Structures are given as C-alpha cells and as structure tokens.
Amino acid sequence: MAFYLKSEKGDAMQWPLFLGYAAIVWLIFVKLKLIPLSFPIALVLAAAGPLILFYILWAMNFYHPGSNDVQVLRRVVQIAPRASKPGRVSDVTVRANIPMTKGDVLFTIDPTPFEFDVNRLQASLAASEQGVPQLQAALDQASAARQRAEAQTALAQQTYDRQTELLSRDVVAQATVDTAKRNLETAQQSEAGARAAEERARLELTSTIGGENTAVAQVRQQLAAAKNDLAETKVFAPCDGFVSNVNILPGQIVSAGVAVMPFVCDADDDGRGKVVATFPQGSYLGVKAGDHAEVIFPMYPGLVFTAKVAETIDITNAGQIPVGGLIPAVPSPSAAPARFAAVLKLDDQNLRLPAGAHGEAAVYTDRVALAAMFRKGLIRTDTIVNYLMWGT
C-alpha cells in the first residue's frame, strides 16, 4: 500500500490534507468547543482520522491518478533530398514558420546535371532498341558461318576417308593422309567455333525479361532512375505544416538522405499536437481509455481544461527487446522508475498549445467520488499557483 500512497509530488500532497484535518479538529474541539474533547474522542480522532486520510490518498492515486509530466508533442518530418547523388541548391522557396500545404515546393536542386543523365540514357535506350534487329542479323550471320563450317568439315571428312582408302592400296603416301587428317581436325575446330558463335548470338537475341531484351530493359531501368532523380530535384512539403527554421541557401550542396530542415506536420490532433501524460507504474493501472481527465498548463494560469483519455501506451523504451547479437542488458535497480504514457484529447479544440508545452493532468473514474473531489481541489490549487510562475 505504501507504493500507492506515494504521490506524484512526493509528500507535498499529504501535508495539506493532514494540516486541514488538524485545523478542523482544532476549530471544532478547541477554538469553538462545539463538542467536548474527551479521551475516547481524542483516541478516535488520532486513529480514525489518519486512516481515513490515508485511504483517500490511496484512492486518489489509484482511482484518480495525477501526472505532473504532461507534454504537448507534434510530429516532425526530417526533410532530406532523395536524389541518388549530391546536387546544388538553386532556389529556396520555403520561409520559416509560414504555413504550407502538402505538395508545396520547399526548395529546388539545380536539375542540369540530372537532365544530362536523362538525355544520355534516352540516347542509349534508342541505340539499344535499334540493336535488337542487329542481334537478329548477327544470329543469321552466325548461322550461315556455322553452315559453311559444317560443309567444310564434311568435305574434309570425305577427303580424309578417300586418302585413307588410297593409302590402303599404296596409291598415296602416309604424308598425304596425315595432311588430310590435319585438315579434318582444323575443319572440326572451325565448326565448333562457328556453333559457339551461333549459340552466343542466339542467347543475346533471346535474352529477355518481361518480353523485352535484357540490354534494352537495363537501359530503360537506368533511364527511369535518372528521371526519378530529375523529379526529386524539387523537394515538396510532405504534409500541411511549417518549417521551424531554414538554414540552407542557394548554392549549397545537399546530399541524398541527409536532412536539411525539420518540417512540423499538422496531421496530429488538428494541428495542435498530441497531449501526452506519463504516470508512475502504480498510478498508471487506474488509467483507461475513455476516462475523463483535466489538464492545466502554466501558460494558462487559473484555467482547467477538460479532456478524455484517447489511448494508453503499454510500453516504454525499457520494455523493448533490442535486435542484435548481444544479450539484452538487465536494467539497474538504481535506474529511474519507468513511466507509462497516455494520450489525452482536449475538449477545447481551439486552444493554442505550442509544441513542447508542459503541464499537469488528472484522470478520473467513477470510483470513490470523495477522492476525486480532493484530486480536483489539488489540481485547481496548482493552476492558481501557476499565477506565481506566469512568465517564467
């Protein structure tokens, strides 16, 4: 139970309750003397009173948890060129903190080098497409060469057979047969080379992917990549929002994948960002989606904003199993206790909330209404105290 009695602000929450209780006892029994103070009554006041207050504190932390860590967060997209090679900035259109819509041009990279690549590959594509009929002609030529080689081999074979027969009749010398044999071997080698050349020409002609010659397809893909690089010379706003600071100038070299400016998106919660409250482990158990909540901000002293719990996030970075070849480290017992986050949706849709603003929040359930009254009193006390810190 001691875990739940520990409040978000340490012991600061407990002392007002005990001092208030002591003041009520003093006022009734000492100052006004409305009831005579006897030993049994004093014993009850000393025992039952603190127990009731401890129960209220426990119920307030468990059923109506509070958080002094409320933050306003917004999604920030890192703007980085996507061209495959560095380029020189030719024009910067964006201005800092000026609202923009999705698709507006932020800055432009000099397209000249990328246009050169597109023109070169377009010429290469035309040459590759014209090369396909040439491959057919090369195959026809190789087939004709193979047929000639076959005819020469057949002729050499006949000559060798005839000379061998004449040698058996002692009509020709052995040297004549040897010459015919060498001519036959040379013809066979020429025929093998012609067949290989024909097969190579056939493979070059019939090598296709998706019904297109591979050489043509390869150049076409290179051309598509070059056109994509050319299109990426204009960098557009990824969503509605604004750039918080612009640090690039015309003439600056930017590289692919290297962020050059942050773009703040308006996609979350109608452009006002997400209000996220974190709770200690014990208090977090009492937070459920749909619960009513109240939020205060130092920039709005004296005001309490109603809200609802939109969602709860049942994980922290300490609960993530890292990917890698090392055994995950066990957190040290001295490490800061984990806090879990809940997203709050304010009922006031027109409230101006700069990203990074901090505040406090309280979540209410339908259990122990008396504890809810104390929690509401505390959060209203805090928002009044914010007048003292206004402007800090």
SSE layout:
Elements: H1 2-5, H2 14-31, H3 39-63, E1 66-73, E2 76-79, E3 87-92, E4 105-109, H4 112-168, H5 174-206, E5 208-209, E6 212-213, H6 214-231, E7 234-236, E8 241-243, E9 253-254, E10 261-265, E11 274-280, H7 281-284, E12 292-296, E13 305-313, E14 339-346, E15 358-364, H8 369-385
Antiparallel strand pairs: 1-11, 1-15, 2-10, 3-4, 3-9, 4-7, 5-6, 8-10, 11-14, 12-13, 12-15, 13-14
Helix pairs in contact: 2-3, 3-8, 4-5, 4-6
Please give a structural write-up.
This protein has about 400 residues and is of the alpha+beta class. It folds into three domains: about 1-75 and about 270-320 and about 335-390, Elongation Factor Tu (Ef-tu), domain 3; about 75-110 and about 235-260, OB fold (Dihydrolipoamide Acetyltransferase, E2P) (Beta Barrel); about 115-230. Helix content is about 45%, strand content about 20%. It contains eight helices and 15 strands. It has helices spanning about 1-5, 15-30, 40-65, 110-170, 175-205, 215-230, 280-285, 370-385, and strands at about 65-75, 75-80, 85-90, 105-110, 210, 210-215, 235, 240-245, 255, 260-265, 275-280, 290-295, 305-315, 340-345, 360-365. It has a six-stranded antiparallel β-barrel. A hairpin with a 2-residue loop joins strand 5 (about 210) and strand 6. Helix 2 (about 15-30) runs antiparallel to helix 3, helix 3 (about 40-65) crosses helix 8 and helix 4 (about 110-170) runs antiparallel to helix 6 (about 215-230). The longest helix is centred in the middle third of the chain and has 57 residues, at about 110-170. The model is unreliable at about 1-5 (pLDDT under 50).
